[in-house]
Design a protein that fits this description.
This is Integrase catalytic domain-containing protein. The chain has 301 residues and is α/β, with parallel strands linked by helices. Helices cover 49% and strands 9% of the residues. It is flat, with a radius of gyration of 26 Å. The protein starts with a helix and ends with a helix.
C-alpha cells in the first residue's frame, strides 16, 4: 500500500499507513472458514454413489464408476463406448453379485441411470434411488480426481497429441474404430489396476484401514442389525430375481410382461474385427499399434 501511495505522489509515513490499514481491517468482518460436513452412513451398502466420467467423451469413451459410501470401496469402474442405460445397468448388476444389493443408490439426473433407478425402486421400494447434482455426489466425485490424474489424463493428452499431429481424425469412422480397438483394452486394464489398488490403499482418517477392510469389518460389526443393506450382503436367501418379481407384483406386473429384447452393443464392431497376426507385433508401443490397425482398417474401407 505504501508503494501505491508513493506512485501517486502521496508521501505518508509507513507507521501511519499500517495504523490506518489496521483500523480498517478491524471493521471488516472476517470471513468464516468453511466447515466441512462429516459424511456418515451407518453400514456398508447403505448408499452407493454412481456417476459417469466424461474426460474422454470427445473420443467416444465414457468411464462409469460406483463407490460404496461407507467404505469408499469401488464396486465397479469400467470404460465403455457409449453412455447408455443398458451399459450402466449391466455394470451395476455385476457389482451386486460381488458386493450385494445396496439399500440406496445416488446418481445425477442423467438418462443413463434410469434403468438402475427403476430396478432399485422396484426391488427396494420407492425413494431408494436419490438423484441430485453431480457436485453433491461426494464420494464418486472425489474419486474422479484420482482416476483422471492416474489413468485418463495419459490418454487425454495422448489422443490430443494424435489429433495435433494429424494421425487421428475424430470425424473419420475408421480412425475412431482403430483408436477404440487399440486403446480401450489398455484403458480398462489400467482402470482395473487402479480399482484393485484403490480398494487396498490405506486411509489415514480411518485408522489406516483399506476400503476392503472397512467393507468387511463394517459388515461383520453390523451383522446383528436388522439392516436391509447388511442382509443384501450376508443373506443366503437373497435373490435379485425374486425381489424384482415381488416389486413388479406390487404394480400388477410380472417378468413375463417384459420379453427378452436383444439390445445391440456398440462394442460389437470391435469384437468382430479380426486382424491378421502380422498386423500387431508384441514389441509395438500403443501409438505404433494404432497406426498399424488404422492402416489395416483403411485398406478394408
Amino acid at each position: 500500500m505504501h508503494g501505491y501511495l508513493l506512485a501517486e505522489g502521496i508521501y505518508v509515513q509507513r507507521k501511519r499507513v499500517r495504523e490506518t490499514l489496521s483500523s480498517l481491517t478491524d471493521r471488516i468482518e472476517k470471513k468464516k472458514p468453511i466447515s466441512r460436513r462429516v459424511y456418515k452412513v451407518p453400514t456398508p451398502n447403505s448408499l452407493w454413489h454412481m456417476d459417469g466420467h466424461m474426460k474422454l467423451a470427445r473420443w467416444g469413451i465414457t468411464t462409469h464408476g460406483c463407490v460404496d459410501g461407507f467404505s469408499r470401496c469401488i464396486v465397479y469402474l469400467h470404460a465403455s463406448l457409449n453412455n447408455r442405460a443398458p451399459t450402466v445397468f449391466k455394470l451395476f448388476l455385476v457389482a451386486t453379485l460381488s458386493y450385494g444389493m445396496p439399500s440406496t443408490v445416488r446418481s445425477d439426473h442423467g438418462g443413463e441411470n434410469k434403468l438402475v433407478a427403476l430396478f432399485v425402486n422396484l426391488v427396494k421400494g420407492c425413494a431408494h434411488h436419490i438423484t441430485g447434482r453431480s457436485v453433491h455426489n461426494q464420494r464418486i466425485e472425489r474419486l474422479w480426481r484420482d482416476v483422471h490424474t492416474q489413468v485418463t489424463s495419459f490418454f487425454y493428452n495422448t489422443f490430443y497429441a494424435l489429433e495435433d499431429s494429424g494421425k487421428l481424425d475424430i470425424n473419420n469412422q475408421n480412425d475412431m474404430l482403430a483408436l477404440h480397438f487399440v486403446y480401450l483394452p489398455e484403458i480398462n486394464r489400467r482402470l482395473s489396476l487402479f480399482h484393485s489398488s484403490w480398494n487396498q490403499h490405506s486411509i489415514r482418517t480411518e485408522g489406516n484401514k483399506t476400503p476392503e477392510q472397512l467393507f468387511i469389518t463394517g459388515t461383520l460389526t453390523n451383522s446383528s442389525k436388522n439392516s436391509s443393506a447388511i442382509k443384501g450382503i450376508l443373506s443366503q436367501e437373497f435373490s435379485l430375481k425374486e425381489q424384482l418379481k415381488k416389486g413388479l407384483n406390487e404394480y400388477g406386473l410380472s417378468l413375463d410382461d417384459f420379453p427378452n429384447t436383444d439390445i445391440p452393443d456398440e462394442d460389437d464392431a470391435i469384437e468382430q474385427l479380426q486382424l491378421p497376426e502380422n498386423v500387431i507385433r508384441e514389441d509395438m508401443v500403443l501409438d505404433e499399434k494404432f497406426e498399424a490397425v488404422k492402416m489395416f482398417i483403411h485398406t478394408l474401407a
